[in-house]
Specification:
mainly alpha, 4 helices, 2 strands, Ribosomal_mL54, structural constituent of ribosome, 2 domains, flat, about 10% strand, mitochondrion, single chain, two-stranded antiparallel sheet
Length: about 120
């Protein structure tokens, strides 16, 4: 129970997009038909020490790189439209995600009903 509460608190207090922001560019892009596209850019300028992101016991905090030094797929991770398109292109992965979601809902409902009996 404590673990579940801790997870819920962590989810609500720490936003995933704390180090990125959305910016609008008006430059035309050859991949999209619209003239404006939201791109994700880093909030931390290049060379900024990112405190608290060290994962090694004796390691140092990482230093932010310039945006062009990061791989392209990294910026697509935070783009819901790109993730949805990627999921729709893979039918097996989409079916698995739907099956897992339905299973989670079924487990939650069974747990709720079991709690009602007590």
């Amino acid at each position: 129970m404590l673990r579940l509460i801790t997870r819920q608190v962590l989810r609500t207090t720490v936003p995933r997009t704390s180090f990125v922001r959305l910016a609008s560019t008006s430059a035309p892009n050859t991949e999209t038909t619209s003239s404006t596209k939201k791109t994700i850019t880093s909030i931390a300028p290049a060379g900024t020490k990112l405190k608290g992101l060290n994962i090694k016991k004796g390691g140092e905090d990482p230093i932010a790189l310039a945006e062009n030094e990061y791989p392209e797929w990294l910026w697509e991770l935070l783009d819901p439209a790109a993730q949805k398109a990627k999921l729709e292109s893979d039918a097996g992965r989409q079916a698995r995600k739907e099956r897992r979601s339905a299973n989670r809902q079924k487990i939650k409902m069974n747990n709720f009903l079991a709690g009602m009996k007590n």
